[in-house]
Amino acid sequence: MNKRLSNAQIEAFHSDGFLSPIDLFSEDEALRLRNELEDAEKRWPEAFQGAARNNAHLNLKCLDEIVHYSALVDIIEDLIGPNILNYGTVLFIKEANDPGFVSWHQDATYMGLEPHSGITAWVALSNANEQAGCMRMIPGSHGAIRHHDDTFGAQNILTRGQEVADVDESRAVATPLRPGQMSLHNATVIHSSQPNRSNDRRIGFVIQSYIPPEVRQTVMPTGAQLVRGTDKEGNFERLSRPRRDMDPADVARRDWVNQTWSDILYRGAEKKRDY
């Protein structure tokens, strides 16, 4: 029996490559989490700059809470089974009236994870409507990895500014979210987002990705958290949950993971950026 999703929702996810919107938190709970995150940002601004926005769940308890939130993990279990790892997270914060955008791409392109069975959860802590630059998906585009061109565009907030050419944007589906909602997408579905033209920050916390233990990192060793069930494969170094915000040992662990991510994501690239 499914824990959270209906059979129709599961079929839609597998057919389209994404599912949105999904109610996760109340707006009040989302506001609490946003306030805790922004309080941490004021206290430790260095933890929100450059690569430090990657894997911040390892050093901030409010983000760790989302990763392990039972209702969210139940939904993932409906899709990939009872044994679940979290490979990592990214904070995507677009400031008000920010020109930053995300080009058409597939998450799995440079991640080095095989097989490509990961599920990305995109959790909104603020309004992520079309004005704020919500994500757009190309239904049914998941499957084989398409060729990506590295643009390193100044306003492109992807690592390499990677972009899939010849995307039929007439097929795109917008996935607006209110605070406390999330979307899920397959690691190979083609998606993008536009600049934030609203007067508020667009705060997205992205778990990238929930994976079954059978997934391997093919480039170099790195870490992952066991979120639920068991891991008999041992393909990743086991990462612990933070005991308190910004514990030095947790920050050091985050920095190690982020260095491995940089080496993996920029492998073969002409240059590196600090995220």
Structure commentary:
- 23% of the residues lie in helices and 24% in strands.
- It has 275 residues and is α+β, with helices and mostly antiparallel strands.
- It has one domain (7-264): q2cbj1_9rhob like domain (Jelly Rolls, Sandwich).
- The strands form 4 sheets. Strands 1, 2, 3, 6, 11, 13, 15 and 16 form an 8-stranded mixed β-sheet that branches. The chain has a 4-stranded antiparallel β-sheet with strand order 4-12-7-10, with no helix packed on it.
- The longest helix is centred in the C-terminal third of the chain and has 18 residues, at 248-265.
- The N and C termini lie far apart (41 Å).
Question: Which helices and strands appear, and what pairs or packs with what?
Answer:
Layout: H1 7-16, E1 18-23, H2 27-43, H3 61-67, H4 70-80, E2 84-86, E3 89-94, E4 102-105, E5 113-114, E6 119-124, E7 135-137, E8 148-150, E9 162-164, E10 173-174, E11 181-186, E12 191-193, E13 202-211, E14 216-217, E15 223-228, E16 237-238, H5 248-265
Parallel strand pairs: 15-16
Antiparallel strand pairs: 1-11, 2-13, 2-15, 3-13, 4-12, 5-14, 6-11, 6-13, 7-10, 7-12, 8-9
What does this entry show, briefly?
By secondary structure, the protein is an alpha+beta fold. Helices cover 23% and strands 24% of the residues. It is built from five helices and 16 strands.
Tally of helical runs: 5
CATH superfamily membership: q2cbj1_9rhob like domain
Task: Give the proportion of residues in helices.
Answer: 10-25%
How many structural domains are formed by the residues?
1
> Which runs of at least 5 residues are low in confidence (pLDDT < 50)?
none
